[in-house]
Amino acid sequence: MDIEQFRKAGYQAIDRICDYYYSLENRPVISKVEPGYLKDHLAQSIPEKGEDFQIIADDYQRFIVPGLTHWQHPSFFAYFPTACTFEGILADLYATSACNPGFNWSSSPACTELEASVMDWAAQLLGLSPVFLNGSGTGGGSLQSTASDSALIAVVAARSLYQRDHHNTKMEDLVIYTTTQTHSLGLKAGLILGLSVRALEVTAEDEFALRGVTLQKALDDDEKQGKKPFILIATVGTTSSGAIDNIPEIQQVVKKQPSLWVHIDAAWAGAALSCPENRERCYLKEINEFANSFCTNFHKWGLVNFDASTLWVRNRRHLTDALDVTPPFLRTTHGDAGTVIDYRNWHLALGRRFRSLKMWFVFRSFGAEGFRSYIRRTIQLNKKFAEYVSLSDKLILVTSPSLALTVFRLSPKSISPAQPALDEQSLNNLNRLFYGRISARDDIMLTQTVLNGVYCIRLAVGAARTNESHIKQACDLLHKEAELAIEAWEQ
Ligand code: PLP
Q1: What is the ipTM of this complex?
Q2: I want to staple 304 with a disulfide (CB 3.0 to 4.6 A). Which of 193, 249, 308, 472 is the partner?
Q3: Domain with residues 3-68, CATH architecture
Q4: Residue range 99-111, pLDDT digits in tens
Q5: Among 80, 183, 403, which is best to mutate for testing ligand 1, by the most ligand atoms less than 8 A from CB?
């Protein structure tokens, strides 16, 4: 493809993307293809002779789009939606056209300098303490691919720091603390690094948030056993229920255990900190006072296209001490002088995508005010949905609604009094039947979860195009499916 062919194909691609967005609402949310569907449409191997690009572009529409689940659909309420914006799409296009793995400052100064600046903008937007800013010279922020990568980096840095201060620690004694509600990233970090992971118990009475007493007891037990817990991954906004670990209580415990690194995984909920009214509830003050590292994914609830996971550390030296490996071919004058950031030493790989461009485009185009108003709108929409559940004679809330997430299930009262009373297992089965009906539909997408043995359903608001009419549709549809599930159950 030459430059003029690229120009033509590029215009067409933008036209088609616009058509896609115009048609999004009329498409099914969920792809209905069967496993292996694509094999029949693909050649067995790379074509020997290059093909005409128009045919390739048309095949994308014919074969790939039908196999996509439309995460930008306004009735996508599954997992945590990823709010994508046109500003981000365009930034990715520019970034990919520069095709630049800016790992050192000198390998592309703009990549490093823009990242350092937008990470400071983002920190200020969320109200993070100035100690986390790149401008502080001590702490700093960088863009990672995912929250799982961010957590892994935090664990690597924490381990290195702990081993520096506790020379004779055996690897087999080191323990990563998580809770039973921590995302799979905790176990995965343990798996990758060959370290033990201890998931601390949380209870329904505490709305699945980690309490200080539980942490203290685990520390006491482990001390007796000669174990060395060196990091706690605490969560602000768990995946299953949006639980917020009790950070003030954790802070009190950690005061007596300063060698315990505390990483805050706020992959989803972190964006809510942009609105001052959410800060107390998410314990921002305490996070600012003592957390060693903090992560949120702007590609979840932050209007930036996947991927854009932000990771801040209180002390950048802890990252570079653990991750700086500099063979001669990576040495540079500025790097040697220590006058610039070389982001390759702040993450796992060498090369890195030019992610800061999309953060810059989105932040400038929305402004802090536009960003906050999107967050407030989604929280408001979730409030409406939660109100509907509270007033329903068929559904109940399982936990208090958290920001833009509601967890609910069919209520035992929805079964007719003539039926035998439901035990917990039957109620779970009834709810599985209910969810089975919802997930068989293609016009809405929600996810299931289990909270300490209780089967429930989650609805997360966040897709950029969701409005009140989609919440109303979701309520009507859930009401109908609840009736049908109960009817089927009673027969
Ligand atoms: N942490 C929380 C609280 C999440 O909800 C998720 C994903 O939904 C993750 C971590 C994992 O995110 P990633 O895919 O960026 O690793």
Answers
A1: 0.98
A2: 308
A3: Up-down Bundle (1.20)
A4: 989 999 999 999 9
A5: 183
